[in-house]
Amino acid sequence: MRIDIVTALPEIVRGPLDQSILRRARQKGLVDIRVHDLRDYTTDRHRTVDDYPFGGGAGMVLKPEPIFACIEALKADAEASGHPVDEVIYLTPDGAVFDQPMANALSLKRHLVLLAGHYKGVDQRVRDALVTREISIGDYVLSGGELPALVVVDAIVRLIPGVLGDAASALSDSFQDGLLDAPVYTRPASFRGMEVPEVLRSGDHRRVAAWREAERLRKTRARRPDLL
User: Fold this and answer.
1) Does 155 fall in a domain?
2) pTM score, two decimals?
3) Residue 126 and residue 115 in contact, taking contact as beta carbons nearer than 8 Å
4) Rounded Cα gap, residues 228 and 226, in angstroms
5) CB 67, CB 125: distance < 8 Å
6) Which of 167, 184, 185 lies closest to 176 in space, CA to CA?
7) What residues have CB less than 8 Å from 227, skipping those under 6 apart?
8) In this structure, are 83 and 140 located in the same domain?
9) FRET label pair with 54: which of 9, 77, 83, 154, CA 20 to 30 Å apart?
């Protein structure tokens, strides 16, 4: 899989991409993640990527010219390689809320372009002409789309076969089948008077599975009844 992240603030996203699971996935060649600085696609000497909104109002808007130049170049290169871009995704608070089924579907794609908005967002013409999907990571506003882009990348990449040491790990995560995950414990069995449930130490896999399923239902009813 290849993922291109288009942003006016590339340093925000580069650091996390070189850590933990994302770093190992890149080193194994399981995913190719590239970060593109919008300022590299400007034509003025000030490398301007934003301007004031028409009609007035607070904040700045990302200009269409560098975004079109960047994404059109990425799409042209992808077409030439024989593997066209599958989706151009814009991270925005008014997009569809990102969830596990969406992550599962996107993990099956071959080439994604993620556009991180900033300031007051991007010129609407970018959304009309280039974007194929708009994603929000929740009903709140951040300073830009860089952190949401990282959230989406992490959720997708961990689902790619070979990325996690245990392939079953991702399949047992919360939300994979509509329920939250059960509590987990590790050694020591007793810590400051708090004990690991006996069933988890019993070695009886059938009892363990039944306990985990009951705990998942209990937690989901208590915290996310909307999922049931």
Assistant:
1) yes
2) 0.89
3) yes
4) 6
5) no
6) 167
7) 175, 178, 179, 180, 220
8) yes
9) 9
